[in-house]
């Protein structure tokens, strides 16, 4: 045993779990805990953010990108409440994180002192693990248990520490219990279920595999399944990259963040295999489709849609077993789907090429795609920028990205990029934001500057909350509260000690990335901000696309295609008829 402050013992617990950095802002109610971090500064790095929300979002992004627990902290009162955005994002996206929350010293608790409040009830809806320590000896133990809880539940845990307790000296001996992160047992593959699904595949004319994050480490199995059984694949938006995005059988995602081919193949499907996902919008699919669901969480089976065949299994080994079956020849359905994807990709490029009325956002994302490395990391914000990014960015090698999927909090990209660069220091890292989301967290560009993180931040400035603007338009409402003034974001970046570059057309966009290449080659350590002045163009809404002549009259089709600028895009039903007639 060694004598040390309880705050230092806490830091040693973090280090024992291989945590090498954490985020927060110090204050009088957490100073002793931070001093404990100082004592272990050679083993764990304290990243001083400019807003606790940024720290909590970065910790959540760390967990999503690496699978390791993310840690953030805040002081009592306002520091604690600022942590909520990141913590709720972790809860809804099932990311293991721990928040350390300061509290007034015990002698002044319950005396209506400055910033003193009863914080424990705040976290009741967030997590079952919200514990306030009552003596200094508990601090390392409760921290240890919080990390175990976060890993076990894949969600947040909260440890509240009165500041005087973390400053007291205790006897501490490191815990010897092995750091077990995954259960030792796995769900076996049921051969009867494999046989049943194979029979359904042979009978189906229009089968589709819909893959979720449960298959994030199963790219080879997914590709083999698709190619072996001639099945087009789509993913949920957060699972983009489960199948290489440039594979001809990959259709993209369905919904607002989706694509035309993903929408159309699921509309035409007669069999959909949901694997590793609890996708909520599957409930809106047409009637008459047979559904199979493969999931290792029994609570998720049938939660979103009535299922014809449920399989309780890990999707990766189950697909591997299924892939042992005899192949199924390519079908007109798959060939039509491949053609639909080719047309969609060509259309995106045509839209990107058109800067007659201003720079197209698609052109900016395409430039990022063309200039990003095969192991790039992307922090993606919420809004139209996310729609463009998910549709165009390459996830065909070892690229990674993080997004706020279920909670959908704006301002996510910049914190996620900080997490990405700290967790993967040798990789190229981007943040992609709209001007609305970026302006919520822009102060933490200083964090990138302070820690010499050469992140490429891309701000798509259109002077509006574009994602909500679309909802206003479709609801026949006035765009009240949608538009706002812009800024010289490149100048802002320069003033913050970063490198600002403004672009407004394809030529200046090309020159910007040429400059960035030179900066990277010279060993630049400053963050870069591309201030992209783009036209306020509503991206095509792919959540519902009335373009099938077998279902909609020509006037409806013409109105939709004109509003969406969806030219040279024949309906999938037309492509399928052509393939059937060959």
UniProtKB/TrEMBL annotation:
Similarity remark: Belongs to the TPP enzyme family.
Species per Swiss-Prot/TrEMBL record: Lentilactobacillus parakefiri
Residue ranges of every copy of the Thiamine pyrophosphate enzyme TPP-binding domain listed in the record: 381-531
Residue ranges annotated for the Thiamine pyrophosphate enzyme central domain, each copy included: 194-322
Protein name from the UniProt record: Pyruvate oxidase
PROSITE patterns in alphabetical order: TPP_ENZYMES
Cited CDD domains: TPP_POX, TPP_PYR_POX
A molecular-function term among this protein's GO annotations: thiamine pyrophosphate binding
């Amino acid at each position: 045993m060694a004598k040390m402050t309880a705050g230092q013992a806490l830091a040693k617990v973090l280090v024992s779990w291989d945590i090498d950095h954490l985020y927060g802002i110090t204050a009088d109610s957490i100073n002793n805990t931070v001093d404990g971090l100082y004592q272990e500064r050679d083993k764990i790095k304290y990243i001083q953010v400019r807003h606790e929300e940024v720290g909590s979002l970065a910790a959540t992004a760390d967990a999503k990108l690496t699978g390791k627990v993310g840690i953030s902290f805040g002081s009592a009162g306002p520091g604690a409440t600022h942590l909520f955005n990141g913590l709720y994002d972790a809860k809804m996206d099932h990311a293991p994180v721990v928040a350390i929350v300061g509290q007034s010293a015990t002698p002044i608790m319950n005396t209506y002192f400055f910033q003193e409040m009863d914080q424990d009830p705040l976290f009741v809806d967030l997590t079952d693990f919200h514990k306030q320590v009552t003596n200094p000896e508990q601090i390392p133990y409760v921290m240890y248990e919080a990390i175990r809880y976060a890993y076990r539940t894949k969600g947040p845990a909260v440890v509240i520490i009165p500041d005087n307790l973390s400053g007291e000296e205790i006897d501490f001996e490191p815990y010897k219990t092995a750091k077990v992160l995954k259960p030792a047992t796995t769900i076996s593959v049921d051969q009867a279920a494999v046989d049943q699904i194979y029979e359904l595949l042979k009978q189906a004319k229009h089968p589709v595999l819909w893959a979720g994050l449960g298959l994030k480490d199963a790219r080879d199995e997914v590709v083999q399944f698709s190619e072996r059984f001639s099945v087009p694949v789509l993913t949920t938006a957060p699972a983009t990259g489960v199948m290489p995005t440039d594979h001809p059988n990959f259709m993209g995602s369905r919904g607002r963040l989706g694509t035309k081919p993903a929408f159309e193949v699921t509309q035409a499907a007669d069999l959909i295999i949901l694997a590793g996902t609890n996708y909520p919008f599957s409930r809106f699919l047409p009637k008459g489709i047979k559904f199979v669901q493969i999931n290792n969480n029994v609570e998720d089976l049938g939660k979103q849609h009535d299922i014809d065949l449920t399989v309780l299994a890990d999707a990766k080994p189950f697909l591997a077993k299924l892939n042992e079956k005899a192949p199924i020849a390519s079908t007109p359905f798959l060939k039509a789907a491949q053609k639909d994807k080719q047309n969609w990709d060509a259309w995106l490029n045509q839209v990107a090429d058109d800067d007659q009325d201003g720079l197209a956002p698609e052109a900016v994302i395409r430039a990022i795609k063309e200039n990003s490395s095969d192991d790039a990391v992307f922090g993606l914000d919420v809004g139209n920028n996310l729609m463009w990014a998910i549709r165009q960015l390459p996830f065909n090698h070892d690229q990674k990205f993080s997004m706020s999927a279920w909670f959908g909090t704006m301002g996510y990209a910049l914190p996620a990029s900080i997490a990405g660069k700290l967790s993967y220091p040798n990789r190229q890292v981007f943040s992609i934001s709209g001007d609305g989301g970026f302006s919520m967290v822009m102060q933490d560009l200083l964090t990138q500057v302070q820690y010499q993180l050469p992140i490429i931040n891309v701000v798509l400035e259109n002077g509006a909350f574009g994602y909500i603007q679309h909802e206003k338009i479709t609801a026949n409402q006035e765009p009240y509260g949608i538009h706002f003034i812009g800024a010289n974001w490149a100048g802002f970046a320069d003033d913050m000690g970063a490198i600002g570059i403004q672009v407004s057309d394809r030529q200046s966009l090309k020159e910007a990335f040429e400059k960035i290449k030179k900066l990277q080659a010279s060993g630049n350590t400053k963050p870069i901000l591309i201030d992209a002045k783009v036209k306020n163009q509503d991206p095509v809404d792919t959540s519902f696309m009335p373009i099938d002549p077998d279902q909609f009259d020509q006037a409806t089709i013409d109105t939709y295609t004109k509003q969406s600028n969806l030219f040279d895009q024949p309906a999938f039903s037309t492509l399928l008829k052509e393939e059937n007639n060959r």
